Amino acid sequence: MIAGWEDIxxxxxxxxxxxxxxPGALIPTEEALAGExxxxxxxxxxxxxDLAEAGVLERRRKAGTRVAMLPVRKATLDIPVIRQEVEARxxxxxxxxxxxxxxVPPVPVASRMGLAPxxxxxxxxxxxxxxxxxxxxxxxxxxxxxxxxxxPDFGKVSANEWLVxxxxxxxxxxxxxxxxxxxxxxxxxxxxxxxxxxxxxRSTWTAEAPITFVRLAHAPxxxxxxxx
Amino acid sequence: MIAGWEDIxxxxxxxxxxxxxxPGALIPTEEALAGExxxxxxxxxxxxxDLAEAGVLERRRKAGTRVAMLPVRKATLDIPVIRQEVEARxxxxxxxxxxxxxxVPPVPVASRMGLAPxxxxxxxxxxxxxxxxxxxxxxxxxxxxxxxxxxPDFGKVSANEWLVxxxxxxxxxxxxxxxxxxxxxxxxxxxxxxxxxxxxxRSTWTAEAPITFVRLAHAPxxxxxxxx
DNA sequence: AGTGATATTATGTCTGCACATAATCCGAGC
DNA sequence: GCTCGGATTATGTGCAGACATAATATCACT
Lengths: 228, 228
Hints:
The structure is a homodimer. Chain A is built from seven helices and eleven strands. Chain A is an alpha+beta fold. The first copy, chain A, folds into two domains: about 5-65, Winged helix-like DNA-binding domain superfamily/Winged helix DNA-binding domain (Arc Repressor Mutant, subunit A, Orthogonal Bundle), CATH 1.10.10.10; about 80-220, Chorismate lyase (3-Layer(aba) Sandwich), CATH 3.40.1410. In chain A, the strands form two sheets. Chain A has a six-stranded antiparallel beta sheet with strand order 5-6-7-10-9-8. In chain A, strands 1-3-2 form a three-stranded antiparallel beta sheet. In chain A, α1 (about 5-15) crosses α3 (about 40-55) and α2 crosses α3. The longest helix of chain A has 13 residues, at about 5-15. Chain A is elongated and about 65 Å long. At the A-B interface, α1, β4, α6, β8 and β9 of A face α1, β4, β8, β9 and β11 of B.
């Protein structure tokens, strides 16, 4: 019996799929499974922990392990740098800096970044191109107080890439939504105003201070896709 | 030094953040770190493996472990059942079955499901309501060949929930996009045609056969959000 | 019946060791 | 200089045993 932890995970998953162990059911203990599969408990633990992380199992000390009742499936998506995203489609990436200036952000942006109204930020507007055609319109607020100085020329270096290269790993959140193109977006992306656009909004933080808030308005046809 | 694997992970992450170990740098071997932290190699392995899964580190046998150059950040999002999603907002969930019949799917759907053109499927159209207001328009193709019979009355049980409860854990893929509302969607959701809608498309498979393909057209204002 | 201390139990984590595996390094041979 | 193949090495995985932790179960006592 060649039982690596992945084999055990597969077997457990199989039993769940064929409803040997239906949703909500308590499955045998790690010790019992280790006995059955003829391996160490640690190996079973590895397999079950992995399934629990994927949302298939729910584990609690002493209570045991049960099959998740409502499988809140977890999809993981990669958030690549825009250049990589374009190149992964086999297209050539380029970008144009449309504007960059110091400015006081509108109140909703300031509040979303957790800043007092009136704080001065950098505003950078970029259009990314795939094979010369508009791909995504990037509007970004940067907090100069927490960035390494001096800021580079964002006409030469994409703000997107400069940040991941020069600002250390951070936390943040991402939101996806759909909005009709406003006048500026329609103009820049070359679509009719009101056209449905896929919007990504991301804010990034160090431990304490906000670093950047970016809004990406993707050209029509853009999809975010992932396997589950 | 009370060093559990989470402490080690935190310390490694700290060193990356303060650029002790800048992007691309090779970090010490597991053995060296184990010596430094005064713990077993397995414990260091656990910590580093976790960071690698998160996309912060890249590990290769013999080559060693290095800090990811371009941090392809991985966001994980939960895909709950629609009822849970509505209730999580503190709203009351209800749904209305708009139509359910046997039908031959259009070619794009059949091909996306990997079925020969002409296969007969079930077509179910549902409107989900949050506090009585349109929330999402669900159009779903079901493959009766692989479903437990008899199919229930989808006017009483939401197809969404019946599937997660009665069809075992499966694989599939999800795609998000933005589209203008077509006539039917505009009508059902009570918006103007062409309004930007957030679209979720999901296909689900057993090991071999397609189970269902569903398209969710969300009412304006819908967002998918996640922390990174 | 209710309540609180205690025993029990399943998972969580760690150790120390071993061998497997993959990738690089490096030298022999051409 | 080049290629091929073996030595080296860092990570991947496994095992047996141990203790920690959290949650449940039980039982004595009020």
